[in-house]
Amino acid sequence: MIRSAALAVVVALGLTGPVLAQEATPPAVSEWRAVAPENLLVIDTTKGRILVELAPVAAPKHVERIRLLASRGFYDGIVWHRVIDWFMAQTGDPLGTGDGQSPYPDLTAEFTFRRDGTMPFVPVARPMGSEVGFINSLPVQTQPDAAMAQTGDGKVHGWGMYCPGVAGMARGEANDSANSQFFLMRQAYPALEKRYTVWGMVVSGLDVVRAIKVGDGDNGAVTADPDRMIRVRVASDLPEAERPVVQVLDTRSPTFATLVEASRRARGADFSACDVSLPVQVSGAAAPAS
Q: What b/e string do you get for 175-195 counting C-beta neighbours within 10 Å, with b at 16 or more?
């Protein structure tokens, strides 16, 4: 599957017309960034395949847990037990009720992270006192670079933004109660920011996330015939012949800058990093039959 930058602008903004399409040209070969196999989570579901780029810079302990559980086959066959349209789809509970978890200890929250100048952060907006942009495919809000000179460790706070496709960790009432359950955003929901750990971003398959059966019970519970995850693996744990290969538009590229500018002009004062949909190329092995 290949999406051009021009098509991505149109799809992301829900707009059509030759003027907008002509404002972005297909990316050059050098403008694509390969997603490392150890940072690519392959979620095969009854609705199709979802590919998530893990974000260890934002939540290293949570990414480590996801990798561990995927390598053990923990997620295989687990249902999407809570799905709310215009919000998110939640899974990762072996009981399928929202009350279950893995046998491993709960995780310490990673609601924010410390960012230094070596991280590949690319700003797209500078609201007062902060910067908004991307670290790889993850939309991020952060304190400005200028503040690094005023901190003891030369770093500033950053946190993932809950845009469509963002992967977050579910938890109970206590901050440090995340374990195995996670959710994928169907739409933006900024009220979750700095309250639930962000650990990745859907780079392919947001349409699949939005196709997962919506709950018909209380609080989005799916009470009848829920969709399931068939197999969940980190790509590096799959045989090479079964690995999808994913390339995402590099946010440091000229085409990305053009895409952002087109989105900014179209959205005006309402522009957000959530309006920017990164073009992606997926090749290699297809999803197994359900």
A: eebbbbbbbbbbebbeebbbe
